[in-house]
RNA sequence: GCCGCCUUAGCUCAGUUGGUUAGAGCGCUUGAUUGUGGAUCAAGAGGUCUCUGGUUCGAUUCCAGAAGGCGGUACCA
């Protein structure tokens, strides 16, 4: 007789998707609040848009193919139209502005927190589902809105918990990159060779001048033996590009001047350099010069950028759980995208904004050991089965005072209940067993203080008999006693 | 996508030159303590040795493939 097998699915998650603990969520919420407070203080208003957008609105159809780009999660609605999960918050903003153009004040300034999805291979601090926190000004031309975006970005990064020495904010411009490409004799519009050159420049930090030279020329083989095809430039052209990269300097004006020299007579290049000069001037006047550098090695992948671009990287080494130091990407970026709304409206609407990768930033801070354990709720022990209403009353009274509190609802004894409270990181437990009840009293035990005291207590007998860090008070003084215990730490 | 490493208890990992009962530390449960989280001591639970196929009398161990994980690299619209 054949036994019927019960189907039991494996509990598992798709690659790059994570469950997140209560502590991580609280840390993220706190970080988001601090970042958004900065955005709001600059006059930005919040906006929410849906997780799904029509794929054509995101601009993510593959050229000449009736299918969405591989990098976005997509599905067909019941009318066969392709929809995709948003992969950033900028494309939905452009859609929103285009759709409500006449009613919106220009410039339109909004900030937005949201989950975004990218169908890519996950890496360290890199997921397929993560949170971004953006602020953008739509309808504000260069370079003043760019300078503001960069200053606000620096403020937001600082508010998020990164001190100035922990982060490097670098600024460049798509226009000076185009100027360089023209000077080298390439067509900036040519996505092939020019794209390869820009990607090589983007790796200057990681691979250094020699690595970039290989990528500009024939190609480069990495440690794992994988070969990357190069851009095929001549030695002279490569020298030219590297001279541009070496313009980086502590003196922004000098860096921009050298970039001008390398770009020769390019008109776009000169325009980009003028904008960078204006930005650098504002940053210096506002006291941001020590926190932000003009640096030609910033490229940024998104090809919708049209002017200044910037990004923030952490300067401390990030290690994974195995203790290996890991290649960690940027924690935030931004730039100018003057053509994004034009896709819908036909008219150019200048726009600039920034985005902070909150999930990655949290990963970086956690890797540095800055995750602090969150305090749990006060736990009211449940010692006598027929006294549950009284326990609930005590918890409710604490809540009414704004103190997080819960009644123990498991089925175990006192010892296990205390272990539970310990594991929950409860700061305080409230105990009313038969002894206290008959006296009209309640015991308030300070677990945090007790943990501290236990370090100096050797024997179990001493530990038990001393009953450290707990007080028994009349029922009416419960709230006051709990508050004392909470405040004492 | 390409390259490399890895996969044995909840976690971190040993181990079996192919042989019957696969181990440790930590964690977990219970007790020493009719009502007190730490420490100590004692007892206990927990494994299709990732999966599939091959070689073999016999595979957790050898071989091949797959899946998953980690890292690098590419891509990142």
Distance between the termini: 66 Å
Q: The CATH topology of the largest domain, please?
A: BirA Bifunctional Protein, domain 2
Number of domains: 2
Q: What characterizes the major β-sheet?
A: 8 strands, mixed
The amount of helix comes to: 25-40%
**Helical segment count:** 18
User: Strand tally, please?
Assistant: 20
**What CATH first level of the largest domain would be assigned?**
Alpha Beta
Name the overall outline.
Answer: elongated
Radius of gyration, CA atoms, in whole angstroms: 29 Å
Poorly predicted residue ranges: none
CATH superfamily of the largest domain: Bira Bifunctional Protein, Domain 2
Spatial strand arrangement across the major sheet: 1-5-6-15-14-11-7-10
Which band does the percent of strand residues land in? 15-25%
The class by helix and strand makeup works out as alpha+beta
- The CATH architecture name of the largest domain reads 2-Layer Sandwich
- Report mean pLDDT, rounded to a whole number: 89
What are the SSEs and their pairings?
Elements (H helix, E strand, L loop, with lengths): L21 H20 L3 E2 L5 E3 H4 L15 E3 L5 E4 L4 H10 L8 E10 L11 E10 L5 H16 L7 E7 H11 L8 H10 L1 H13 L2 E3 L5 E3 L5 H11 L6 H12 L3 H19 L6 E3 L13 E7 L3 E2 L5 E2 L5 E5 L5 H4 L5 E7 H10 L10 E3 L7 H13 L4 E3 L6 H10 L4 E4 L2 H6 L1 E6 H8 L5 H7 L3 E5 L3 H11 L1
Parallel strand pairs: 1-5, 7-10, 16-17, 16-18
Antiparallel strand pairs: 2-4, 3-4, 5-6, 6-15, 7-11, 8-9, 11-14, 12-13, 14-15, 18-19, 19-20
Helix pairs in contact: 1-4, 4-10, 5-8, 5-9, 5-10, 6-7, 7-8, 8-9, 9-10
This protein binds one RNA strand of 77 nucleotides through α14, α16 and α17.
InterPro entries: aa-tRNA-synth_II (IPR006195), aa-tRNA-synth_II/BPL/LPL (IPR045864), Anticodon-bd (IPR004154), Anticodon-bd_dom_sf (IPR036621), His-tRNA-ligase (IPR015807), HisRS-like_core (IPR041715), HisRS/HisZ (IPR004516), HisRS_anticodon (IPR033656)
Subcellular location: Cytoplasm
Main location: cytoplasm
